[in-house]
């Protein structure tokens, strides 16, 4: 392990989880830093400038959402929040406050490392950087408005096109319903979530081999969607 | 006015004895205060010092200085009686030494805190009894007492302060005192002293004391103390007047009754009665007898205000329905209540009218017997005591008049038919018949009209000159007058009977209404039913809008109604709260908050207050009539009892449910603890094997152990998740986040969360149309699917597929999960959804029997259902039907922007 290896700040007050996260991350070549509270997290984030932060939303001293907001005020360090099942609203709030991704307890090493990798890459493709967006066998040409799957042309409606484009710009990252609605329809209201669902459903029909077991367009129930690479 | 100016001999004797007793008797002085801390002890000690300087032998029997230096310094130079020590449960208690005091025989002894309760082992239970002994022994006593300790004020004090004072002294003890000194400071000063710590507050009573020392309480207590002192001083004054032969008083046991009417002058009567009662120290009552005459609104209002005035002045207001004559009614009540004095207003009617009708005064005085009757002149001319010459009667309608005309016509025809054969006098008799019939059937006014018609017909057809209204013979005028008079008299008599019948009928109706309410309340099961029944009954009986206020857990009242009742606002709730807190009616028609929008009656049950009934009437306050008010109160009481009953039965029911739930919880706990321990044992075992391995385990063995840990951990996760869901479903706190979800999304998400049990297994998915939607809470539906699929995987052979099908049915969507397992044993189709049920052939140790119970809970929470059936080709098939609420989203998303 060298100083060049990415350093992950693990913010959790449970020793068992700290131990597990520490071991899993170290075995994959990351340096690990621990904080037991929101206050400590903010201090260490400033002093050590970690590459990413794993933040448990159930901290003893502060609401996880406050920590995310505080961090986002000065930094764009990738943040992955950890939360329990059934707290989907908390996850959505954290994501919309600027967290990059989330993990639902309990999770395995594989899932953890995958999320960290996505977050570290932070490959948000800037608008206009490249006219071609790709994932797997799906290819989108922004200039000619052409979408192909395995070389075959796929016809998309304007909204489907915008939705796919938004997902392709954030590969691997979960996007909340609101975030997608804002990007595609320009508004984000709860009443329109079903339009998004209809649109996503149609997109899946057009792009996925088995739309009930999607390869790319993953559903995160109660949260949003994710383009899986 | 039969009044006795001289005291009777017995009175005189008593007075002489009293006087003797008083001069030889020891003097008893009370330092009286409104509350602790006003400085009674200080005042007493100051006075004692003065007496000592005058040379009186002063002994301090017991004085509590509560370590106040200014008070303690006043003890200087005074002899202190040592206290008696009494062992009480191992703790020595110090008490006033009565024997010691009697042996010492001082001229004056100070005994603080008259209301004190002696410790067990003393001669008397109460200290005031000690003081009585001292006085009887001829020793002067100074003592202190607070107003709240007076027995007669117990209820008032409890009402004001909310505290039931335990240490009380009989009022007679105070009445025995020769001198009473009120130690009075302003409330502000007292509060100031309290905040400066100058008031002794025992540690254990700190909370109670704080409640007690509220400004409002103190103001009320001070007023009570002042009033009580005034009364005692007044009694002194009377004693003085007695001794000076100023005859103004009567024998003890006086009771005064004043007869009132709705007239303005009755106020004078009421005040007169109060003055008389005060000077006699007698209780008094004001009585209105409802003689059956209709009251105008103004009169009713005045009557109400008279009755309120009576209550404010400390009298008892009574409204009686009349039965016999007014005088008899009044005297019956007077005898029943041992009334000794009756006050009546002087009628201002002309003398001839009184002669004609008799006057109340003469009737009452004739029948009064030993009761004294006082006449008070009243100025305004009004009186409703007598039956009026003309009882009010409704005017007959046109149809009645026509009928009366027909009777007269019939009489005329009969007369014409027999005219030549009979005398005119007989024809007159014929004409009395229609008058009689009209009087009996239609009342006085109809009788009057009929007699007028009869006179006209008689005059026109029979009295010569015939067929003119001219009367030839003056004697016939007399006949006419008799006919008219007959109509009036008979009509009046029948009218009276009729009105009595109507009154009896309305009484009957009220009884019936109460009976009906009682019946419907008995049938009402719970609180809501009771309220509904009561609302219906009261609203139909009184043509008014009813609302109930019931206390919540915190004792705050809440309106039990969301029908935008006019009394559902916050102000009215406040009035209701007052009613509840003081257990006293408030609002319109009462003396409290009369400006409120309605009337508020407390619901008094057997065990306390249940709530408040609010009534509001758009047409005006109908319930102000005393008998209506009385009926309303009866309704309120019945409702209160029914509410109490409902509360008790609800409590019993809740206890039953709780026990049942407890039982289930125990069963669940024992089952779950087993199911949690099993995977824990597996995890612990595998982990220790790995940790303590000296290097003998092969790589494959290590992987197997690690895999076991992972599997068991997953099982525990599923179990905990299920438990949490079950708790949420059963607690009733579950809030469905109902959304339209593409079926493929839910199924896809569920399959991706299958975890280890799903690895390497064949799960086939078939969604009938890509745009089939499910409606419901995404996470719960996912959970339902996971449970069903895991269950199917558990029972199917490893090489057999599990099939998931989704199909829309137009009004909903169905999920079907089918396996190739052994199927469901016949008769078990329902039981497998029960909690903690495990199939006999279930793989051992797998699952707590919660999964399917949760599936059913989720389906039901969505308004759907779940069924199981066996497939023809083997295996079981679970079908979940979820209905749609509203239309599923359709069409292209382009339209929705």
Describe the protein.
The complex is a heterodimer of chains A (229) and B (897). Chain A has two domains: 7-121, Rossmann fold (3-Layer(aba) Sandwich); 132-227, Winged helix-like DNA-binding domain superfamily/Winged helix DNA-binding domain (Arc Repressor Mutant, subunit A). Chain A is 40% helix and 22% strand. Chain A has eight helices and twelve strands. Chain A has a five-stranded parallel beta sheet, with helices on both faces. Chain A has a four-stranded antiparallel beta sheet with strand order 6-7-8-9, with helices on one face. The N and C termini of chain B lie far apart (99 Å). Chain B has 26 helices and 25 strands. Chain B is flat, with a radius of gyration of 45 Å. Chain B is α/β, with parallel strands linked by helices. In chain B, α12 (297-312) links the parallel β10 and β11. In chain B, α17 runs antiparallel to α18 (444-462), α22 packs antiparallel against α23 (699-731) and α23 (699-731) runs parallel beside α26 (851-861).
- Proportion in helices of chain B: 40-55%
Count of β-strands of chain A: 12
Please bin the fraction of helical residues of chain A: 40-55%
- Terminal Cα span of chain A: 28 Å
Poorly predicted runs of 5 or more residues of chain A? none
Strand content of chain A: 15-25%
CATH topology of the largest domain in chain A: Rossmann fold
Report how far apart the termini of chain B are. Answer: 99 Å
Our count of domains of chain A comes out at: 2
User: What spatial order of strands do you see in the largest sheet of chain B?
Assistant: 3-2-6-7-1-8
Low-confidence stretches of chain B: 1-5, 245-252, 380-389, 891-897
Major sheet characteristics of chain B: 6 strands, parallel
The rough form of chain B would be described as: flat
């Amino acid at each position: 392990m060298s100083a060049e290896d990415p350093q992950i700040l693990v913010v959790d007050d449970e020793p068992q989880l700290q131990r597990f996260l520490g071991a899993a991350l170290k075995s994959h070549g990351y340096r690990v830093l621990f904080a037991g509270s929101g206050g400590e997290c903010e201090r260490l984030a400033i002093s050590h400038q970690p590459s990413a932060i794993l933040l448990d939303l159930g901290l003893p001293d502060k609401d996880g959402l406050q920590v995310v907001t505080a961090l986002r005020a000065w930094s764009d360090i990738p943040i992955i929040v950890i939360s329990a099942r059934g707290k989907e609203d908390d996850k959505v709030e954290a994501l919309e406050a600027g967290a990059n991704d989330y993990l639902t307890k309990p999770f395995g090493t594989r899932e953890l490392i995958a999320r960290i990798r996505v977050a570290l890459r932070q490959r948000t493709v800037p608008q206009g950087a490249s006219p071609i967006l790709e994932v797997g066998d799906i290819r989108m040409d922004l200039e000619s408005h052409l979408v192909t799957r395995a070389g075959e042309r796929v016809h998309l409606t304007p909204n489907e096109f915008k939705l796919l484009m938004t997902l392709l710009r954030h590969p691997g990252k979960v996007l909340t319903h609101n975030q997608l609605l804002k990007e595609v329809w320009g508004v984000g209201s709860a009443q329109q979530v079903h339009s998004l669902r209809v649109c996503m459903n149609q997109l899946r029909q057009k792009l996925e081999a088995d739309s009930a077991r999607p390869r790319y367009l993953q559903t995160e129930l109660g949260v949003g969607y994710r383009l899986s690479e | 006015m039969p009044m006795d100016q001289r005291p009777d001999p017995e009175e005189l004797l008593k007075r002489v004895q009293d006087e003797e007793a008083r001069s030889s008797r020891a003097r008893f002085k009370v330092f009286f205060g409104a509350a602790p801390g006003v400085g009674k002890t200080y005042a007493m000690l100051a006075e004692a010092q003065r007496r000592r300087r005058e040379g009186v032998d002063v002994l301090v029997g017991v004085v509590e200085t509560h370590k106040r230096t200014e008070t303690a310094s006043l003890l200087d130079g005074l002899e202190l009686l040592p206290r008696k020590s009494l062992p009480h449960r191992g703790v020595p208690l110090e008490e006033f030494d009565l024997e010691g005091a009697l042996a010492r025989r001082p001229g004056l002894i100070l005994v603080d805190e008259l209301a004190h309760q002696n410790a067990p082992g003393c001669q008397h239970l109460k200290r005031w009894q000690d003081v009585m002994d001292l006085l009887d022994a001829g020793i002067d006593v100074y003592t202190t007492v607070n107003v709240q300790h007076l027995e007669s004020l117990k209820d008032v004090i409890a009402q004001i302060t909310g505290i039931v004072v335990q240490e009380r002294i009989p009022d007679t003890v105070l009445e025995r005192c020769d001198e009473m000194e009120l130690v009075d400071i302003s409330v502000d000063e007292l509060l100031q002293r309290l905040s400066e710590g100058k008031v002794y507050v025992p540690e254990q009573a700190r909370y109670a004391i704080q409640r007690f020392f509220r400004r409002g309480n103190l103001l009320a207590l001070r007023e009570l103390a002042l009033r009580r002192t005034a009364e005692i001083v007044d009694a002194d004054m009377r004693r003085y007047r007695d001794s000076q032969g100023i005859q103004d008083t009567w024998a003890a046991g006086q009771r005064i009754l004043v007869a009132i009417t709705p007239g303005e002058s009755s106020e004078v009567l009421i005040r007169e009665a109060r003055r008389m009662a005060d000077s006699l120290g007698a209780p008094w009552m004001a009585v209105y007898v409802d003689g059956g005459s209709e009251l105008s609104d103004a009169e009713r209002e005045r009557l109400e205000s008279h009755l309120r005035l009576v209550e404010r002045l400390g009298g008892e207001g009574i409204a009686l329905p009349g039965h016999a004559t007014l005088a008899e009614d009044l005297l019956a009540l007077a005898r029943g209540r041992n009334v000794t004095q009756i006050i009546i207003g002087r009628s201002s009617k002309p003398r001839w009218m009184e002669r004609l009708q008799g006057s109340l005064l003469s009737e009452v005085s004739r029948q009064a017997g030993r009761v004294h009757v006082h006449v008070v002149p009243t100025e305004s001319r009004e009186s409703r005591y007598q039956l009026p010459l003309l009882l009010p009667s409704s005017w007959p309608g046109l149809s009645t008049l026509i009928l009366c005309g027909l009777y007269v016509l019939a009489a005329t025809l009969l007369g014409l038919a027999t005219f030549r054969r009979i005398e005119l006098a007989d024809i007159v008799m014929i004409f009395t018949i229609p008058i009689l019939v009209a009087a009996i059937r239609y009342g006085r006014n109809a009788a009057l009209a009929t007699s007028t018609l009869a006179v006209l017909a008689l005059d026109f057809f029979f009295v010569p000159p015939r067929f003119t209204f001219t009367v030839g013979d003056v004697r016939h005028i007399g006949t006419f007058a008799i006919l008219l008079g007959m109509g009036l008299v008979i009509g009046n008599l029948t009218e009276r009977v009729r009105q009595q019948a109507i009154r009896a009928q309305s009484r009957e109706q009220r009884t019936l209404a109460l009976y009906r309410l009682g019946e419907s309340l008995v049938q009402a099961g719970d609180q809501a039913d009771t309220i509904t029944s009561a609302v219906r009954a009261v609203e139909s009986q009184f043509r008014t809008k009813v609302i109930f206020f019931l206390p919540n857990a915190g004792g705050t009242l809440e309106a039990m109604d969301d029908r935008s009742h006019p009394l559902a606002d916050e102000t009215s709730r406040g009035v209701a709260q007052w009613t509840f807190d003081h257990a006293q009616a408030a609002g319109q028609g009462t003396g409290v908050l009369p400006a409120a929008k309605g009337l508020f009656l407390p619901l008094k049950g057997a065990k306390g207050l249940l709530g408040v009934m609010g009534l509001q009437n758009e047409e005006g306050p109908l319930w102000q009539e005393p008998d209506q008010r009385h009926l309303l109160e009866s309704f309120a009481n019945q409702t209160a009892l029914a509410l109490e009953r409902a509360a008790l039965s609800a409590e019993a029911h809740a206890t039953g449910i709780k026990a049942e739930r407890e039982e289930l919880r125990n069963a669940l706990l024992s089952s779950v603890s087993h199911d949690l321990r099993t995977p824990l044992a597996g995890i612990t075992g595998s982990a220790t094997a790995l940790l303590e391995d000296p290097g003998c385990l092969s790589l494959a063995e290590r992987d197997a152990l690690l895999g076991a840990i992972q599997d068991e951990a997953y099982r525990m996760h599923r179990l905990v998740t299920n438990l949490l869901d079950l708790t949420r479903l059963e607690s009733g706190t579950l809030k469905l986040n109902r959304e339209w979800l593409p079926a493929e999304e839910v199924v896809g998400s569920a399959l991706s969360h299958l975890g280890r049990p799903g690895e390497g297994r064949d799960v086939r998915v078939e969604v009938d149309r890509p745009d089939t939607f499910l409606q419901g809470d995404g996470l719960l539906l996912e959970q339902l699917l996971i449970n069903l699929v895991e269950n199917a995987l558990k029972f199917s052979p490893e090489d057999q597929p599990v099939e998931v099908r989704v199909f829309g049915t137009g009004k909903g969507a169905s999920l079907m999960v089918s396996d190739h397992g052994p199927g469901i044993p016949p008769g078990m189709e329902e039981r497998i959804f029960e909690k903690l049920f495990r199939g006999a052939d279930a793989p051992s140790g797998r699952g707590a029997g919660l999964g399917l119970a949760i599936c059913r809970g989720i389906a039901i929470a969505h308004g759907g259902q779940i069924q199981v059936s066996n497939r023809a080709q083997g295996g079981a098939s679970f079908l979940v039907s979820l209905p749609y609420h509203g239309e599923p989203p359709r069409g292209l998303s382009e339209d929705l922007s």
